[in-house]
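Dear H.,

Thanks for agreeing to be a second pair of eyes. The structure we're designing against is below in token form, covering all 88 positions.
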């Protein structure tokens, strides 16, 4: 991995950190927001026979986390290609 200059390296890490923070915010909203804060209103809705608030607390946040891992990998591959720091 080589960068032409320090500005390019800083831009790469700024975009990387911004991506991580966005994905963590999504996970926080799903796990804490839907699973804890909004559990009671969501429990009025049924999902495969389970209350939706319960489902988010037990399963939904895990599923979202797994999806976010794949999204992160795909977006980081694009970011690496953009800054020419791909691994061979």
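And this is the sequence the design step returned. I haven't edited it by hand at all.
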């Amino acid at each position: 991995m080589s960068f032409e200059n320090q500005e390019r390296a800083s831009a790469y890490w700024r975009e990387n950190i911004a991506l991580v923070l966005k994905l963590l915010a999504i996970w926080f909203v799903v796990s804490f927001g839907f699973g804890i804060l909004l559990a009671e209103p969501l429990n009025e809705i049924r999902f495969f026979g389970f209350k939706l608030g319960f489902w988010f607390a037990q399963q939904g946040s895990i599923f979202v986390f797994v999806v976010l891992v794949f999204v992160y990998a795909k977006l980081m591959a694009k970011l690496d290609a953009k800054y020419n720091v791909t691994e061979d």
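Two observations from my side: Residues 6-82 form one domain. The chain has three helices and two strands.

Warmly,
E.
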